[in-house]
Amino acid sequence: METLTVQTQPIEGQKPGTSGLRKKTRVFMEPRFLENFIQSIFTGIGGVAGKTLVLGGDGRYFNDRAAQVILRMAAAQGAVRVIVGQNALLSTPAASNVIRKRKTDGGIIMSASHNPGGPDEDFGVKFNTPNGGPAPEEVTDRIFEATKVIECYDIAVTEDLDLSTVGEIKLGDMVVEVVDPVADYAELMESLFDFDAIAGLLKSGFRIRFDAMHAVTGPYARAILEDRLGAAAGSVINAVPSPDFGGGHPDPNPIWAKDLMREMFRAGAPDFGAASDGDGDRNMILGAGAYVTPSDSLAVLAANAHLAPGYARGLAGVARSMPTSGAVDRVAAARGLDCYETPTGWKFFGNLLDAGRVTLCGEESAGTGSDHVREKDGLWAVLLWLNILAVTGRSVSQMLADHWAEFGRNYYSRHDYEGVDKASAEALMNNLRSQFATLPGRSFAGKTVASADEFAYDDPVDGSHSAGQGIRIGFEGGGRAVFRLSGTGTVGATLRVYLEDVCEDPEAMNRDPQEALADIIAAADAIAGIRERTGRPEPDVRT
Ligand code: VG1
Ligand code: CO
Q1: Which of 91, 98, 49, 95 is nearest to 73 (CA)?
Q2: Which runs of E-coded beta strand occur in 260-363?
Q3: Of the four listed, 33, 199, 238, 279, which is most buried by Cβ atoms within 10 Å?
Q4: How far apart are CA 59 and CA 356, in angstroms?
Q5: pTM of whole model > 0.90?
Q6: How far apart are CA 388 and CA 292, in angstroms?
């Protein structure tokens, strides 16, 4: 095998964000952009000589080309084996599973997750460590440092490999093992859930609709929900991964999964609806006429997970990201479970999961997962919901009503202002920071500020410190507004405003969240000057 040492120089802007490096696809396709970043990953993890890696992606535009480059670089640099999903596909949770199950040295996932795909949209690359989880900051910092000093990379000179057939191929001394992307994952799901109970529910006339949003979960959902569990053919829609996700945003929220929302809110709707994102780690849960906020979903799952065989022993503890609502905290308090609050991004759950301190974790952005892998897992959440519904015999809306009656309700909504001017967004955040000392005690839209600060996290397992993780304004009576700038966008800045209020009045459990939160929304705008500073009369997305 011929190898080539290519001279290069640092390319600016290769700092990994909340979840890997995301850029416009055309930027990733520029000469040496992908190669520089891959080389920096290899450098950041101490080289790949003698190592085994996993490789897969969500099938977006450039996924296939990038896979060939990564394989050539790994072969030239002495990796012994790369386990690749067939056609270079692997959902993020499936990749996490293979990394763990095969005891590898980590993996590279090609995905920009919920960001749209295509030549004019986004591409991304993330590295997961041997525990199967997203690289922690200490590793992404090393990768970023490497991007700033890179001088060359080694790459093999070969034909493209055929990744369409399961089996082994030699690339020089390296073995490329092409695997069925679904098989191991399906087996893992079967070990956690009562497939007979779910199959029984589906046989009894319980109808489901799963929208794979033209992304990677399609083949997984078909194989598990339709083929193994017997959901009616056609229950999984938009099931064939497409390079541009059918022209849509593969983001499972009420805006981007509009068709599914419409279907679930019409007369004669299916009993259960769900959608997942580009790389299969997020989920949206719906019932007939019911939308479950991700924060509530986490709380309901925490309260009922023991009904599924994989969690019958109970939970070690739970964790949520800071902007996620406190609904799960109420469950933890009632059940005597430890509850941790982490910064946004799944990488912060890894240590808690590895240390056995928590079993279930979740984020308000529609990510829920457990210690079965080290990523959030969309289909897992769907199966846990179905298992719980099969055991309890309740509908999704009954589950919610019962949950709120028992634990109280945290009204919750996230407002996103996308692609706003970066300088204005940063000025908005700095303006908030400058008011921390003066806000407490002042009232806005009838709400009195009780506290104002910026969240920082000290990891209880390894002691690492992460600052600047979101601005929190707490109001008297328990409501709050949180402000963050997204770390996954590729254009300008995305301002996320997280709004929450607590409700314990049994008569007030069924209000529209935007109405119930109207005062908090108005107070957040009055304090931060959102409309004025962004020039946007309204958010682009409300979840
Ligand atoms: C967003 C979400 C965060 C999630 C991250 C990666 O990050 O808010 O909760 O972990 O995306 O999810 P940000 O920095 O844009 O708010 V995925 O499924 O897009 O990899
Ligand atoms: Co994702």
Answers
A1: 49
A2: 272-276, 283-287, 290-292, 317-321, 338-342, 360-363
A3: 279
A4: 33
A5: yes
A6: 15
Name the residue among 335, 35, 11 with its Cα closest to residue 144.
11
Sign of the C-alpha dihedral, residues 229, 305, 129, 29?
Answer: positive
> Are 157 and 199 part of one and the same domain?
no
Which of 19, 111, 113, 235 does the annotation list as catalytic?
A: 113
How far apart, in whole angstroms, are the C-alpha atoms of residue 141 and residue 16? 8
Ligand number with the minimum distance to the CA of 278: 2
Domain span at 447: 409-542
Report pLDDT digits (tens) over 371-387: 999 999 999 999 999 99
Answer whether 488 contacts ligand 1 (Cβ < 6 A): yes
The string of pLDDT tens digits covering residues 228-284 is 999 999 999 999 999 999 999 999 999 899 999 999 999 999 999 999 999 999 999
The pLDDT assigned to 505 comes to: 85
Q: Is the CB of 19 under 6 A from ligand 1?
A: yes
Q: How many angstroms is it from 320 CA to the middle of ligand 1?
A: 13
Over residues 378-421, the pLDDT tens digits come to 999 999 999 999 999 999 999 999 999 999 999 999 999 999 99
For the chain, the average pLDDT equals 96
Do 440 and 513 lie in one domain? The reply is yes
State which of 344, 429, 471, 483 you would mutate to test the pocket of ligand 1, scoring each by most atoms of that ligand within 8 A of its C-beta: 344
Ligand 1 contact, 325 CB (< 6 A) = no
Q: How far apart are CA 269 and CA 261, in angstroms?
A: 10
Atom 11 (ligand 1): residue with closest C-alpha?
Answer: 488
> Of 382, 407, 432, at which residue does a domain stop?
407
Residue 333's pLDDT is 97
**CATH number of the domain encompassing residue 357:** 3.40.120.10
- Rounded distance from Cα 221 to ligand 2 centre (Å): 16
Verify that 360 and 430 share a domain, yes or no.
no
Domain final residue pick, 150, 181, 212: 181
Q: What is the CATH number of the domain that holds 451?
A: 3.30.310.50
Whether residue 89 sits in one domain with residue 47:
yes
Q: Evaluate if residue 2 carries a pLDDT over 90.
A: yes
- How many A from CA of 345 to the centre of ligand 1? 6
Share of the chain above pLDDT 90, in %: 95
pLDDT one-digit tens code per residue, 461-514? 999 999 999 999 999 999 999 999 998 878 889 999 999 999 888 888 889 999
Query: For residue 279, which ligand has an atom nearest its CA?
Result: 2
Half-sphere exposure for 507 (CA within 13 Å, toward CB): 0
216 and 131 share one domain: no
What is the tally of structural domains in the chain?
Answer: 3
